[in-house]
Amino acid sequence: VFIAQSRASGSHRDVEDEELTRIFVMIPKSYTEEDLREKFKMYGDIEYCSIIKNKTTGESKGLGYVRYLKPSQAARAIEECDRSFRAILAEPKNKSSESFEHDYYSNNTRQEPRGNTLPFCMQPEFCGFEKNESRIQESVSKRLSVVSRLPFIQEQLFALFDLVPGLEYCDVQRDPYTNSGYAVIQYSTAASAIYAKYKLHGFEYPPGNRLTVIFLEDGSDSSE
């Protein structure tokens, strides 16, 4: 029932798969498709790689796509690849690629560098992205916070999040003064938490009631 409802918009299976197997990465402008494949082949079987180029000049924009055969491989690449690639799940092809590129730059390049993450400062073409900005990138963890305007039933919420492999616990907390729902979800890996947040944030459960899913600090080293 949950899976059927999540596909109620009429999207086809190939689009669903594409949402979970295609990742979007930032790369040096000197990279070729073979360079991109070489960097990401260790995480799984790659169906194809492509580099986004300026339509007028043919020059690389410093962005690319990698599509894997399995969602688990894409999740592993996002979790384990060097942070300088700033890998995220890509938008489906039927959405505007230009607006997605704009949003990606806004969310991933306009931030204050943290710790040892200075991804492209040795490469001049990327240094401009780091200047005069203070937007902070969302920290990823294995723990999620789930909020709803309606109360949760422990067993049902557990069953929903257990669709994603690696669920360790689901703790539903009740506020005696309000009728809203709040729960803490934890997975065994950050990859599972990323997958769950991507698929279930905004999910209607029950119908008409959208869930809000965000990452919670889990005490682990955020750089990992």
UniProtKB/TrEMBL annotation:
It holds the Pfam family RRM_1. GO terms for molecular function: RNA binding. SMART domains: RRM. The keyword Protease does not apply. Residues 21-95 form the RRM domain. Keywords: RNA-binding. Coiled coil: none annotated. The keyword Methyltransferase does not apply. Gene3D superfamilies: 3.30.70.330. It comes from the Eukaryota. This is RBM45 protein. It comes from Mionectes macconnelli (McConnell's flycatcher).
